[in-house]
Design brief:
The protein has 245 residues and is α/β, with parallel strands linked by helices. The chain folds into two domains: 161 residues, HAD superfamily/HAD-like (Rossmann fold, 3-Layer(aba) Sandwich); 66 residues, no CATH class. The chain has a six-stranded parallel sheet with strand order 3-2-1-4-5-6, with helices on both faces.
Length: 245
């Protein structure tokens, strides 16, 4: 087994067909499985912009958030403050940053091919994130995926229904017409993704070494973990004879 703890390609040849055979639909986390969102958001200084909005309205930024690079960590905190003006300001600024990041984000190898192959195999596809849904749709339009997948994104700045709440996955499963959450497969790259899948009672395939290690994914409950080549392997499997078993 590789040092990362990810499943070997040999084992993947049995894991992937088994997961796909059971899945009516695929739900892909945007960050990692679809594209490199986090690096672009970080390069844009998104978390610092969130902190500036808080301090501009005289709100204290907790010490544990003073240096974090994750804008969603800051936004989750802001969502606990009962100030609609703050929420509107943060939603406006963060969604614009998300849009800029998605325009520049590098697609993950095999991601677009997986989406198209899944649709060709009559499986619904949804792209899931805590970011604004319209920024996902912009990416889809740029890359010719608008007719291939559905976007499931943030509907409110308050984090009550953000991941790890199961709502995003349950909503995604419903719009791609999976009979039930367990009839869809969620593909993610973070511990948060793994915990959300567990809360939604949805099968989960973790991709290690994009955002988290295999060990971190397994500790969060992931049973099946592949390496960063996972999307290429999924695309190949969907195009093969096992896709419609």
């Amino acid at each position: 087994m590789p040092e990362s703890g990810a499943t070997t390609s040999y084992d993947a040849s049995s894991v992937i067909p088994r997961l796909l055979a059971r899945a009516q639909a695929l739900l892909l986390a945007v960050d990692g499985p679809l594209c490199a969102l986090t690096p672009r958001l970080t390069s844009l200084g998104s978390a610092e912009r969130m902190r500036e909005l808080l301090t501009a309205l005289d709100y204290h930024v907790p010490d544990e958030l003073a240096d974090v690079a994750d804008p969603y960590a800051v936004m989750r905190y802001a969502g606990t403050i009962a100030d609609p003006r703050l929420w509107c300001d943060i939603e406006d600024v963060l969604s614009r940053l998300e849009d800029a990041a998605m325009i520049q984000a590098t697609p993950t190898a095999g991601a677009h091919e997986t989406i198209r192959a899944a649709r060709a195999a009559a499986k619904g596809v949804a792209l899931v994130s805590d970011q604004a849904a319209w920024t996902i749709e912009r990416y889809m339009a740029i890359h010719g995926l608008a007719e291939e997948a559905n976007a499931v994104g943030r509907w409110t700045v308050t984090p009550k229904r953000w991941m790890p709440d199961p709502y995003p996955l349950h909503h995604g499963a419903s719009i791609v017409r999976a009979r039930r959450p367990s009839a869809a497969l969620f593909i993610g790259a973070t511990s948060l993704d793994a915990r959300t899948a567990a809360a939604a009672r949805m099968p989960f395939l973790g991709i290690a070494d994009l955002r988290a290690s295999a060990e971190d994914l397994r500790e969060a409950g992931a049973e099946h973990v592949l390496g960063p080549e996972a999307m290429l392997l999924l695309a190949a499997a969907l195009r093969g004879p096992t896709a419609n078993l």
